[in-house]
Amino acid sequence: MLPKNNITFVTVFKEFKSFHLRKDVGMIPFLMGKKLGTKSKVFVTEDIDMSALPQSENHLEIIKVPYKSKVCFYLYVLYFLRKGHFIVNTYHYKKSNLVLNFFLKLINKKIITYIKLDISPEYSKGMFDRVKWFNRIFRDTLIKFTTYISVENKLCYEHLRDYGMINGKLLHIPNGISLPCMQELKAKVNNKKNIIMTAGRLGTEQKNTELLLKSFIESNLSNEWELVLAGTVEKSFMPKLEEAINLHNNIKYLGSLSERDLFNVLSVAKIFCLSSRWEGFPLVLPEAAAHKCVVIGTDVGGVRDIVNGGDYGLVVSAELSLLEAFNQVEMLDLDNMSNGIQEYCFNNFDWDVIISKLLLELTKSTAR
Known about the structure:
Oligomer: single chain
Number of helices: 15
Number of strands: 13
CATH class of the largest domain: Alpha Beta
Largest sheet: 7 strands, parallel
Structural class: alpha/beta
Number of domains: 2
Shape: globular
């Protein structure tokens, strides 16, 4: 294992913007810096507003690369990282990251390279088989220079773990939520109401909001239950949403919410529903679980993980439709499930716990 105080964590993400600070792209380097005792470095191409992070804890250094072109950006990164002990983190499975890792290992043998994937279980099935022979040779050669690859949910891990080319490289690292927020929530979130909440890009093909509206309207839930929707709305979907709201008093649309307002709604909702056709691991799932929301969701990335296979919610599948799931709601022990999902979230989806596990994995051996 490498001595941690000699390692600097680096994130290379050309598309990084201020809002990423509160997402995995920002939280991972921030908390890595805290644990390593050295400032993590994030390479970006534009000014970043750091106010989203605690000002009392400065574990992050933003390095603005003065070049917009991809080639110049990566050359700048390579020059900067030519000496020293680094864990270099990139995002998404794409050629540019594989090439970057190749050159990083070529110029600095002490570097550990780590790609965090953001893929759905549907995409992960056979993802390494959907390439032409030339690209496959190119990939199989370059992937040797990537030390670790992680996926966000267990289904993706199961789909990919048997591929020989990533044998010993694959990690399961979920998305999480920060602990300070959780500690406050433990005492705060108690007065729950009969609300089913959803949030996201409403009306898109991915979010499948039509299924959510139809299932709620046709369910046998009593009139005491409300469906509350938040987020942006596709123009083509707005007439359907307005019609549903006009015809049913217990369907409400709140518009786009700030993080604080979203958390306020989650704190009173009994259920969070995800009706998506595909997902990687949406951050709203651990956020909902931390607010004691029992989760009902289609069988997409992260849902089985957050409900622990079905202990703290319902997974919609071929055997259980969303309509049938809603019909079962009033028979569920929502109070116990609510307490259980929050405790499970604290133990498994706290960023501090996740980063400790990730750091242990990344520093198990010297760079390959």
